[in-house]
């Protein structure tokens, strides 16, 4: 089989890029009979006007690749990403190519409901596709209300589950290490987390240390931390990946992602693989992997008081952290890269023979 993946360039930072990279590398390694190629439909390292020009050029460039690939795996979020992939879908189907439409978007429901045009375009695009991939049961239910195409597969986001590691030990003088990884801005709830920490009493703040790893509104976050007098409680590291991210996960005691919108965050899955208890919200596919009072606490987005209570519970109880962490490790097993890649290969075979 020859498959062309249409997605962001490898240099674009974010969870979707991480997923796409893992899937391509995993399929290539595990299934030599599959020829995988990547068509970069978007870049983010240039001026916005140049991004538009590049996206249009990339679409034209795809025309020259059409004779060589039968299956095209399109990775889409909401907004501009969906508009681009809708055009790709129309073009590819016009030339008789098979299209798998992979929905990642954390704000896909909001995008659908924003206008009649969006709802119409989503319906037409998904109905044209030969199959649809979603991240969770929750997203599958939504998509079934958006279109008449019932050929929908649930493919969990993949992660590399580490076989073993030397976790940083807890000691009397070591604060409980909280970890946040993701886009720094309102959507991921980082400002709620800072507010929750500011409301803790002095002794509780002294027992915690929050590590913030991400991009975008870094300077705004640093100013807020200073205003809340939390410079001894919060450290902003900026964007991390690779060995630095692995080291941060090994060092952490609790992972927190109080998002307002999500699909199924890769960062939560990675934290679970490192046996971390999770504090997150009841949005997207998160409640399918973070079970309240089993491997973490699930709260409502924006509930700062509940967020603070969850932090205190896990900060004060090492045995609870250990128990929740072990449960996280067992729950994340279906997201192991090898299993996910095997399921994706079966999807490719199904579409190829359909």
UniProtKB/TrEMBL annotation:
Domain of life of the native organism: Bacteria
Protein name: Glycosyl transferase group 1
Gene Ontology MF term list: glycosyltransferase activity
Domain Glycosyltransferase subfamily 4-like N-terminal: 47-159
InterPro entries found in the cross-reference section: Glyco_trans_1, Glyco_trans_4-like_N
Location of the Glycosyl transferase family domain: 173-329
């Amino acid at each position: 089989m020859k498959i062309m993946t249409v997605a962001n360039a490898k240099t674009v930072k974010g969870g979707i890029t991480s997923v796409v990279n893992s899937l391509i590398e995993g399929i290539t390694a595990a299934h030599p009979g599959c020829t995988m190629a990547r068509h970069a439909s978007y870049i983010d390292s240039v001026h916005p006007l140049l991004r538009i020009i590049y996206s249009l050029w990339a679409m034209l460039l795809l025309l020259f690749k059409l004779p060589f690939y039968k299956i095209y795996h399109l990775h889409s979020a909401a907004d501009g990403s969906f508009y681009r992939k809708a055009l790709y879908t129309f073009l590819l189907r016009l030339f008789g190519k098979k299209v798998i439409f992979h929905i990642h978007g954390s704000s896909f429901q909001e995008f659908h409901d924003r206008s009649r045009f969006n709802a119409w375009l989503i319906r037409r695009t998904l109905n044209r596709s030969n199959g649809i991939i979603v991240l969770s049961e929750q997203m599958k239910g939504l998509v079934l209300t958006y279109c008449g195409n019932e050929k929908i597969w649930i493919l969990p986001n993949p992660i590399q589950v580490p076989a073993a590691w030397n976790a940083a030990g807890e000691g009397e003088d070591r604060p409980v290490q909280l970890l946040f990884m993701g886009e720094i801005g309102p959507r991921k709830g980082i400002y709620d987390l800072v507010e929750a920490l500011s409301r803790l009493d002095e002794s509780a703040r002294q027992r915690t240390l929050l590590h913030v790893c991400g991009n975008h509104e870094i300077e705004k976050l640093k100013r807020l931390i200073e205003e809340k007098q939390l410079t001894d409680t919060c450290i902003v590291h900026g964007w991390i990946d690779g060995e630095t991210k692995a080291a941060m996960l090994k060092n952490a005691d609790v992972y927190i992602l109080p998002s307002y919108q999500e699909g199924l965050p890769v960062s939560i899955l990675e934290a679970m693989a490192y046996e971390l208890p999770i504090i997150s919200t009841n949005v997207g596919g998160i409640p399918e992997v973070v079970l309240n009072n089993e491997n973490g606490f699930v709260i409502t987005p924006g509930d700062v008081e509940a967020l603070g209570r969850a932090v205190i519970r896990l900060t004060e109880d090492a045995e609870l952290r250990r128990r929740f962490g072990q449960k996280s490790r067992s729950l994340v097993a279906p997201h192991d890269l090898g299993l996910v890649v095997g399921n994706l290969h079966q999807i490719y075979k199904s579409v190829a023979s359909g």
